[in-house]
Amino acid sequence: MAGMLKGFGFGLGPWARKRIVDPLLQILRRGAEPKQLAFSGALGITLGVFPICGVTVFLCGMAIAVLGSLCHAPTVMLTNFIATPVELSLVIPFLRFGEFITGGPHFPLTSDAFKKVLTGQASREVVQSIVHALLGWVVATPFIMGTLYILLLPCFKILVRKFSTGSSSPKKPPHFHTEVRLKVRDV
């Protein structure tokens, strides 16, 4: 995996290795199940593209608290982090999708509209555009989540097989009442 990062310029390789590759390798080496990792990755990315910046970590924390052991918390948070640039690029498509769904007015993304937003003259339009973006995300969420799960599952199966240090057999629950027999020899 480290070999893939050599092509990055401007010091992005060491940054990506420290922030993405190394944490992913730690996750894989701890022996989580590929289905749980794929679900958690899909969940982290889906919540990570929520169209209001700065809210995604809170959403992921809430999802982890609600889902508990059904999801893998480090994977949710790592994929949420990875999704940040994608989040910024999807705000406008979610906005336009929400406008399409409601048949609402098209929020102009021009410098004049930006000036109105900054001066408080377009407050109703801004709130309406936020609602449209949220609606677009809510409607797209099941499709994003399902598609990501389908794409991530085979990837995590391969990665777990390659990087997992544990055995591939299912873990046995600990036995609390075990009997130890020692053989003592007369010398």
UniProtKB/TrEMBL annotation:
N-terminal signal peptide: none
Domain of life, per lineage: Eukaryota
Ligase in keyword set: no
Domain DUF2062 residue range list: 23-162
Pfam families from the UniProt entry: DUF2062 (PF09835)
UniProt key word Transmembrane: yes
InterPro entries: DUF2062 (IPR018639)
Transmembrane segments: 37-70, 130-152
UniProt keyword terms in alphabetical order: Membrane, Transmembrane, Transmembrane helix
Matching PANTHER family: E3 UBIQUITIN-PROTEIN LIGASE
Stated name of the protein: DUF2062 domain-containing protein
Naturally occurring in which organism (per UniProt): Fraxinus pennsylvanica
